[in-house]
Amino acid sequence: MKILAHLCITILLATAAVLAQPADSTRTDSLQPVPDTSSLSVDASPYQVRIGQILVTDMRLHDTLDVTFNSHGRAVGGFDLKIGIDNPAIDILDVLPGRMYDSCRWEYFTARRLETPPREGTPRQIWQVVALSQVIPDSIQPICFAADSDISVLRLIVSNEHQAATDDATIPIFFFWEDCTDNSISDRSGNQTFISRRVHDYTGRLPDSSAPLFPSRFGAPLQCVNPAVRFPMKRLIDFHNGAIEFRLNIAPADTTSPGDSL
Length: 262
Prior knowledge:
262 residues, mainly beta, 13-stranded mixed β-sheet, 2 helices
């Protein structure tokens, strides 16, 4: 049932993106690592997807963490994002639509928590989010398809209220790959799919991994780009992982005696 549900969502994303064009417009063990693109400039990647960061100084957390998107003005038709967290100190309670969905009047948004089998490399908690600009073409059109600056595409509701106490720690929240369609973006026509070019950790560094196979936190592997198909996937997205930092801030005690103020 899990495989069937995931397949249905993937087909929906591809089909609905094709339908979204305007009416008058024309895993295996042999997988290879993601190619080294560290020498490319940031400007070479027109799409940026970023999980935010939160600093918690009172050690109690119930907050919203934005995942933002910037297409530098290029139109898109939909997202298929998968986000994971390993540390049991944090729960993602829910995932809500972001400002792009509301402001641009997109038609479809779904978020679901996936089952996490006990296998190596799989995080404790995984959420998959699919957002589409339009499902069925009609007279009601979305009013925008692009972002010239960072805009939220979804909001993670994060909490540690199930914990009695939380120690000082930095807890990563990261993009996660189980197949080539994970963490992908479709163009407005639905013909072209964009996938990961680089994946940065929450410090901004490129993770050190020589063999990011499925399941992976390091992006889509080499075989996801098949030049034999009509519209091969293109590596045009930079992903930036996020984090929640717990750092207790204890204000110093007031040692001033009453006589000192006279």
